[in-house]
């Protein structure tokens, strides 16, 4: 089962930026750990600081072989109607994730523009938020056509 992990702006700075909020590990190091922990999933990873590039990636994987997208849109979560529309338009289910507990932070972070079009949202568990989303996808059974004998 193919799953994309998609990270938005400033998440390329994990391990460097605001360690008290985001921790001291790079996402690339954590991604290696996720690949080992989920051998049944074919994981890919993409990060961009550019809204249009994130939309293009959603369009690219949203209608084909991918069975899920784990998306941390970063600050675009709270501002991007365009990302919200892109998620709404695609077939592939999206789970919104956040490293920090956005509800314990500034008030503007309490509103997600993308959540209404996502399968669910996970926030506040550090990098483990990604693992929780992957566990959901891992447990999904492929739909079968026909009858069981």
UniProtKB/TrEMBL annotation:
Reactions catalysed: 3-dehydroquinate = 3-dehydroshikimate + H2O
One GO molecular-function entry: 3-dehydroquinate dehydratase activity
InterPro entries to which the protein is assigned, alphabetical: DHquinase_II, DHquinase_II_CS, DHquinase_II_sf
Keyword Chaperone among UniProt keywords: no
Gene3D superfamilies in the cross-refs: Dehydroquinase, class II
Listed GO biological process terms: amino acid biosynthetic process; aromatic amino acid family biosynthetic process; chorismate biosynthetic process; quinate catabolic process
Keywords on record: Amino-acid biosynthesis, Aromatic amino acid biosynthesis, Lyase
Binding site for substrate: 72, 78, 85, 99-100, 109
Pfam families (alphabetical): DHquinase_II
Pathway noted in the entry: Metabolic intermediate biosynthesis; chorismate biosynthesis; chorismate from D-erythrose 4-phosphate and phosphoenolpyruvate: step 3/7
Residues of the site described as Transition state stabilizer: 17
Active site: 22 (proton acceptor), 98 (proton donor)
Top enzyme category: lyase
EC numbers for this chain: 4.2.1.10
PANTHER family referenced in this protein's UniProt entry, alphabetically: CATABOLIC 3-DEHYDROQUINASE (PTHR21272:SF3)
Complex formation: Homododecamer.
UniProt family annotation: Belongs to the type-II 3-dehydroquinase family.
Role summary: Catalyzes a trans-dehydration via an enolate intermediate.
HAMAP family: AroQ (MF_00169)
Identification of the protein by name: 3-dehydroquinate dehydratase
Gene name of the record: aroQ
